């Protein structure tokens, strides 16, 4: 898993360095959201299905495999349909008539996505049948492991269950991680002192003779503070996933009957002025030396249904952001601050996708050339 993430992050750094080298001024204008989404999706695709071998030769613009690209297209279709408000949210009778064709569009997009996942599983099954995918545990794809389990417990590990597990990994893990990284880079571009401090920490801890590795992350305390502060200000699942009370209870004096749908507003809790000093300001230092202990931070939820991908997400974020900070100088496009407006949707996207100027750091050019 870590090897898959590291290799996708290397590919992202290589692509950014090439783009900068191709520019006469040595700095490339990049739309970071796209790069960040691609690296998250590719890392998960390699973990789930190991599609690397089918990567298109000479696809200079992207390091995604054709499978990852196809899946991205299906998400591009589905996500806006799910996140938007529909007239039937206000007038339920419209649901029966599907006035704007939303229901049909969702069903068509979901059935295309399911057909794709089925093909992914069949391809892995064929590979296993041909004697492939029998490497050590670290090398096996998630689908290969599940297909192995299917041989002994077919009634549990059905193709439908495997499809659902793949789907959950992709839908819960890509947009959330990519959006957090995009907010973090936006905050750093508007706070160049924090960016410089992160670069100084990186130089002192990792140096400039090699690329950041996952085992460096525990020693990069300030980078971790930046990630925590980003998740505080812009939690990518701001209202959590709806929960349901399993029994009558009383919370803060309110009676909650059994079976009530409950949303937890993490976004408001993270900005509560009675708990956080200067809650709207970006201050990564507030997380230094356990200073925030006892305060409510819940970007990954809490309790039994807490996000199971937390450790993976933090590792991906550490490697992605750390590599961007270690290898490149970052500048805003023009003199204006980066627009921090929030868009609508399930995962608190930026209203205006982040664009930035990226130039390899002189001390890292030899490392980047060797990627
Ligand atoms: C910055 C990245 C991420 C954030 C902020 C995040 C946040 C969350 C939150 C808030 C929930 C709902 C918890 C609740 O309702 O109590 C959740 C659920 C979930 N997340 Fe994540 N997540 C992230 C990345 C990931 C990744 C990388 C994966 C796996 C590849 C993942 C897999 C899941 C799954 C499977 C659930 C449903 C758990 C359940 O219902 O029992 N997440 N996540």
Automatic annotation (TrEMBL):
Signal peptide: none annotated. Heme binds at residue 307. Its cofactor is heme. Keywords: Heme, Iron, Membrane, Metal-binding, Monooxygenase, Oxidoreductase, Transmembrane, Transmembrane helix. PROSITE patterns: CYTOCHROME_P450. GO terms for molecular function: heme binding; iron ion binding; monooxygenase activity; oxidoreductase activity, acting on paired donors, with incorporation or reduction of molecular oxygen. Belongs to the cytochrome P450 family. This is Cytochrome P450.
